[in-house]
Amino acid sequence: METKILDDTPHWIVYLVSSVITVGTAFYWLTFVLKLRAAFKRVLPPRESVNILFKSLPMIGFASVACWFFLWTMFARFHAVTIAADHVELVFFWPRSRAVITNEVLSSASVVRYRRRGGYMQIGTKQKVFRSVDFRQFTMALEIQNAVTNHIVSHD
């Protein structure tokens, strides 16, 4: 079995950045709640209470974009492919486990080019399509595509 990695980014960077964003957001919300608690102890004019709410909107937007990026783009897509004689394994970042696809279920493998210099890979089964993370180097993706296509052809 040979594992081929699509992603150029070391996995520890993803965990480090997501941890910093999570801790930073939690710290920001903790200070926001403490300020809000102190504000409720005294009577606030309506203008000041609206001001407190609008100060939190940029952080809500930033936290939403960060969560979308890390949960969908990084953790829901596969980063590497392990090719064996009778199956293909798609390797995801933790906490998602590997997806094992047998040769009987494989239906397609394609490289989708988009944006200026990037793309992603799709490996399809009869029930589902798995997408990879974005990448810039197409050599490894094309190797994986050829190997998976050979598995599909050899099984048919």
Overview of the structural elements:
With 156 residues, the protein is an alpha+beta fold. It contains 3 helices and 7 strands. The protein has helices at 11-41, 46-74, 139-155; strands at residues 2-5, 80-83, 87-91, 99-102, 106-114, 118-125, 129-131. The strands form 2 sheets. It has a 4-stranded antiparallel beta sheet, covered by helices on one side. Strand 2 and strand 3 (87-91) form a beta hairpin. Helix 1 packs antiparallel against helix 2. The two termini are 21 Å apart. The mean pLDDT is 79.
Mean pLDDT, nearest integer?
79
> Approximately how much helix is present in the residues?
40-55%
Number of strands: 7
Question: N- to C-terminal separation?
Answer: 21 Å
Question: How much of the residues is beta strand, in percent?
Answer: 15-25%
Report the sheet with the most strands, covering strand number, pairing sense and barrel closure: 4 strands, antiparallel
Task: Write down the overall geometry.
Answer: elongated
Radius of gyration: 22 Å
Strand order of the largest sheet: 1-2-3-4
H/E series: EHHEEEEEEH
Question: Low-confidence stretches at least 5 residues in length (pLDDT < 50)?
Answer: none
Structural class: alpha+beta
Number of helices: 3
